[in-house]
Amino acid sequence: MATEPAQQQPLLNNEEQAAIGILPPSHWEEQSTVEDPDDDSASTIGSFISSTASLSSTIFEYRTIHGRTYHGEMGSAESWEPNDERHSEALDLAQHVYTVVLDGKLFNAPLDKKKVQKVVDIGTGTGLWAIDFADEFPNAEVIGTDITPIQPTWVPANVKFELDDCNSEWTWPDNTFDFIHMRMLFGIVEDWDAIFRQAYRTCKPGGYTESFVCDSTFRSEDDTVKDDSALAQWGKVWNAAGRKMGRTFEVFAHNLQQKGMEAAGFVDIEVKDYYVPLGVWHKDKVLAEKGLWWKIHCESDLEGYLNYPFNAVMGWTPAQTGVYAAQLRKELGDPKYHAYTTVRCVWGRKPE
Ligand SMILES: C[S@@+](CC[C@H](N)C(=O)[O-])C[C@H]1O[C@@H](n2cnc3c(N)ncnc32)[C@H](O)[C@@H]1O
Questions:
Q1: A single Pfam family, by name (predicted)?
Q2: How far is the CA of 125 from the centre of ligand 1 (A)?
């Protein structure tokens, strides 16, 4: 069942947005929307290949915002991700993209296959990481948690999914998991120190916790990404929306993964950054392929990604966001913009 909420008030007015360098949404409406006949960006794609909750009915009472559905009420959860089929397909694709970025790996922590018995993937989305991990570790029991039931039902016998708000007190006993995995939880976690404290408590001595997040700002080293480009505006708007939601997207910029793990008491912490050029401009073939996948990732349900932060939080109209999205697509396909993001994986061990 879907319910349309009362019209949301924009949380930042135009003056406040301008003060932090965000172009007014009307800027994008003034851009030409005429398709460039020479624009072949699309064709480049073809050239590469509880609080654990029981299923109460409110879980299925999805909210609808501008035609997209969002999770039902659960604790204080406020997720910016739609939970409809279109977005679930984008999350499935993301599993492939993130694995390509990690050079085919699912994680970096030095896990001992013979010893790993119990694993949790916090904020699992459509659960593909948990399923792939369970295939690789057939002797481990893998739990995937999320606040919305978008996971498949036909899964390996050693996988199960639970509804759980990661910002509430975790209900698992101390020393439960050999491995705790959290991927792309920016804009979702209320307090990064607190979540790593919970991970530390529920991790077994000798077990590992790993976090994967990308930089929410698109940057360039040669100033080809100018302030007024859609690529540069991306981070400004996302970051402002995260501040207003009280769930930061600036996890990479503030190094919150490493700081949180250190503060919680993890040891042997390692940080690995993966450079991801956006689009296919990079000369290095491996990086260009990663860039193509990240471009496809951004473009897959771009409107779904933008709907909550841009429209519901920042108060843009769907039409303004649509024109912005069209310009972003253009820039992602234009090799003159040398934009990149960084994926940061941080992992650490709970001492024995
Ligand atoms: C960006 S997606 C990442 C999904 C998955 N970890 C991945 O990397 O493919 C974030 C996920 O977190 C879930 N989520 C949002 N708020 C949450 C919360 N408070 N507790 C648990 N999961 C949450 C969303 O429903 C969504 O599936």
A1: Methyltransf_23
A2: 5
